Automatic annotation (TrEMBL):
Biased composition regions of type Polar residues, renumbered to the chain: 223-247
Region listing for Disordered, in residue ranges: 223-255, 272-362
Protein name: Uncharacterized protein
Comp. bias (Low complexity): 282-304
Source species: Melampsora larici-populina (strain 98AG31 / pathotype 3-4-7) (Poplar leaf rust fungus)
Length: 362
């Protein structure tokens, strides 16, 4: 994989004790903070050999004047490491955190050794797996003394963002998994192409492959470069049938905003179900939008017009003219004939026994 096509985030992180051998960058009085470069050494005791070796590297950090490092002092430093996989290690760069360090000792009065005190944590993809037999560890495992103990050498490719070149930088490191009880079964989970996290100290440098050698005591495989079927089977869920690349069924669907020139899509969700109650068509007249008061007035006027029509159709009876009564003092000349003739009434006159007919004209 080329440096331009590499992915970032699979880097190497160093943390350990270093002695400042030399300062390469001159001070700039006009600037309070600046980049400063030093010469350090990684001292190793050897992976499968007795001799110790010291490998020089370049360390660069950005800090203020009061945080600069002094030569011949021992500091505890940590930061990103970029090996170039060359036999000459002086160009290997260590970008340490210049504002976060601890001083171990001042001057050259440090009486202890700095061998195998540089720890490494690396995340990368497995590119090569080779079994070897290390003679220096056979006596450490008394079980089956006649059988050789196999050490698994895993070559891992790291890629991370380089601060100076502004591009990803690719490098390789050899991690050795020895057949110790705390690492039993680890070689079975490390596969080609799988992303793993390794942790331990730098023990040696391989002059044949130009790679640093790390004797690991911790290996943690991640989910990187694992098929979707393996992830689903491991968590006990079925793979999604919708073709989604995500193996997590609880993950929300990613929102994709609609383009400006795209066709209009109604937000109303259609359904195949039908309502049990029939509804009237939506093309009503103006009366469907009238208020309740207007509807009541319209119904009242309609009732009145209906009453008028019924009155016009029904026959009207002629009114009977009323006869005017004659004045009391004037007798009528002609008496109106009576519909029903009355029986003559009689009354007694002044003389006894004389009966007068009051109904007669005389």
């Amino acid at each position: 994989m080329s440096d331009e096509d590499a992915l970032t985030g699979h880097g190497i992180y160093l943390a350990g004790n270093f002695e400042i051998e030399e300062k390469l960058t001159a001070e700039q009085p006009q600037r309070d903070s600046q980049y400063r470069t030093y010469i350090l050494s990684i001292t190793c005791s050897g992976a499968d050999r007795v001799r110790s070796f010291s490998y020089k590297i370049r360390a660069t950090g950005y800090s203020a004047k009061n945080m600069k490092l002094s030569p011949k002092n021992v500091y505890y430093l940590r930061g990103a490491f970029f090996p170039r996989n060359r036999l000459d290690t002086k160009d290997d760069q260590f970008f340490f955190e210049a504002s976060d360090w601890a001083i171990i000792t001042n001057g050259g009065d440090f009486a202890h050794s700095l061998v195998d005190t540089v720890g490494i944590t690396g995340l990368g993809r497995v590119r090569k797996i080779d079994p070897i037999v290390e003679a220096s560890i056979q006596h450490l495992i008394p079980k089956n003394p006649t059988k050789d103990k196999i050490t698994t050498v895993v070559t891992v490719e790291h890629s991370d963002y380089h601060a100076e070149s502004k591009l990803p930088r690719v490098c390789q490191v050899e991690y050795r998994i020895r057949p110790f009880p705390n690492l039993a079964g680890t070689h079975k989970i490390v596969r080609l192409g799988r992303e793993c996290l390794f942790h331990r100290y730098i023990k040696d440098f391989n002059e044949k492959t130009n790679c640093y050698i790390v004797i690991v005591n911790r290996v943690s495989p991640t989910s990187g470069s694992v098929d979707e079927s393996e992830i689903s089977a491991s968590i006990g869920t079925k793979p999604s049938a919708s073709g989604s690349k995500s193996g997590n069924p609880l993950k929300p669907v990613k929102f994709n905003p609609r383009a400006v020139n795209s066709a209009f899509k109604s937000p109303i969700i259609t359904s195949d179900s039908q309502a049990s109650m029939p509804f009237r068509p939506s093309d009503f007249g103006e009366t469907s939008f009238s208020s309740a008061s207007s509807k009541s007035m319209a119904s009242l006027s309609k009732n009145q017009s209906a009453d008028e029509e019924s009155e016009e159709e029904a026959p009207v009876a002629a009114k009977k003219p009323k006869s005017r009564a004659a004045p009391k003092g004037t007798p009528s000349s002609t008496a109106a004939p009576s519909k029903h003739p009355r029986a003559p009434r009689a009354c007694r006159g002044p003389a006894a026994g004389e009966v007068l007919d009051i109904a007669s004209d005389e």
